[in-house]
Amino acid sequence: MSPHQGFRRADDDGFVERLRALIGDDVIIEGDDLAYYGSDRCRGGWPVAPGAIALPRTIEQVQAIARLCTEARVAIVPSGGRTGLTGAATATNGELVVSLERLSAILEVDGPSRLLRCQAGATVQAVQDAAVAHALTYPVDFAAKGSAQIGGTIATNAGGVKVIRHGLTRERVAGLEVVLADGQRLSLGGALVKNNTGYDLRQLFIGSEGTLGLIVEATLSLTQPPAGHVVVICSLASDAALSQLFARLRGSSLTLSAFECFDRGCVEHVVAHRGVDQAGPLAQLGPMQVLIEVEHDGDGESTQDALMELLGEAQEADELLDAVVAQTETQAQELWAWREDISESLHGHTPHKADVAVPVREVARFMSRWREAVAAALPEIPALCFGHVGDGNLHLNLLRPADVSLEEFLRRCHGFDPTMYGLVREFQGSVSAEHGIGLLKREYLGHTRSAMEIAAMRAIKQIFDPLGILNPGKLF
Q1: Which domain of life is it from (predicted)?
Q2: How many other C-beta atoms are found inside a 10 Å radius of the C-beta of residue 64?
């Protein structure tokens, strides 16, 4: 049965009239904004067809919208910054998209408790800036932080470049305010550090992709920033050298906060995108590059010396080809930009992206197997890889050749997906590391989750959303 069966369209005249009675003119039913709010960054080939867009300004309005949708049997697609890559925020069949971008306030920063309370539409960048103003930091960090909204990052349990040191979003959520399908407001956690009183329902909503409720407010755990850090980019002789260097660093006393890999093709695309006349950050590029960040408590010189000693050992072992160390904070930011600019540099090639995870010890072997599989099945398609080695998360990219239509490119890529996700399954990995399942990966959920786990998820969904109006067709 279709997940949309039995639902009324949000562009029905009677429904729109009732919606406007609740939130006034903050309703969109026509024009380019329908597509703008109606999809995320995923190119899955499905239609972008929301019935209407609602832009509430208060939590009370979100509650009223949920009650109306339950009564009228109109499906809801929750929407944040729409930076996801799986279609989780895409409306395909007349749903009401509820954008939370106007609920964007930073409500409170409690310095001594290291807690920040904000509305779901606040961007990650805004949260980070508010934390810095109180000499603290929100360490969940990634390239899309300027547009990604907190509610969406919680709904997908976002990771980023500092997971190896600071964990996933899940570890940073102290409390949530959630609007359920029937309009009830559920308060989960907050300022309490210890609360051992039964099930932690808060955890159910983290990573739920908007299928259990609309996250409208969050209390986030902040941390003390390091006194300083050392940032270096290295070129490596092979994929295998990546795992060997990571093992060296993990076995040391250094505080590793980032270990980001990107292949030669990624650097070449950033260079082309910038239009600069240089080969990249290093005199000698290797098949694989890695950006390393090590935190310290104030003794930057000894930290850098220890890091350089380890890199020297790697060079003697023929693992490392070249390295450059940032001498100033400006140089550190410039080195980070080579990693953070990758996604933007690939955007014009309409990439088919996969966000997967494998055991850390298997990262290098998986990348080699993936490249071999692409070369065998799609020899005409450029394949690039970058990711977060410290948690086994890889971003696999297939780029559309200029002489191949988008429709034909997607057909070929989707034809390759079973091979790719089959490889992930073989490595006992996850078909989604950061962006969730959405529409794109529903048929592959069973590659990572057992039938019993999926049945339990469906049962939980039935409790919180018995009519199935919240993000139908996503996840399952």
Answers
A1: Bacteria
A2: 19
Contact present, 186 and 213 (Cβ < 8 Å): yes
Only one residue has tokens 């899309």, namely 144
CATH topology classification for 13-102: 3.30.43
What kind of fold does domain 229-339 have according to CATH? Answer: Alpha-Beta Plaits (3.30.70)
Given this structure, which CATH class describes domain 106-221? alpha beta
Q: To which H or E segment does residue 454 belong?
A: helix 451-464
pLDDT surpassing 60 at residue 1? no
For residue range 246-264, list pLDDT tens digits in order: 999 999 999 999 999 999 9
Is this structure's pTM higher than 0.85?
Answer: yes
pLDDT digits (tens, 9 = 90+) for 155-203: 999 998 999 999 999 999 999 999 999 999 999 998 888 899 999 999 9
Structure tokens at 371: 């490249």
Q: How far is CA 154 from CA 63, 148, 175, 299, in A?
A: 19, 11, 11, 35
For the chain, domain boundaries: 13-102, 106-221, 229-339, 350-452
Q: Where are the beta strands (DSSP E) in 76-200?
A: 76-79, 96-99, 106-110, 115-119, 173-179, 185-189
Residue position matching structure tokens 């239609």: 47
pLDDT digits (tens, 9 = 90+) for 410-425: 999 999 999 999 999 9
Distances (CA, A) of 293 to 143, 152, 240, 341: 16, 27, 20, 17
Third-level CATH fold of 350-452: Alpha-Beta Plaits (3.30.70)
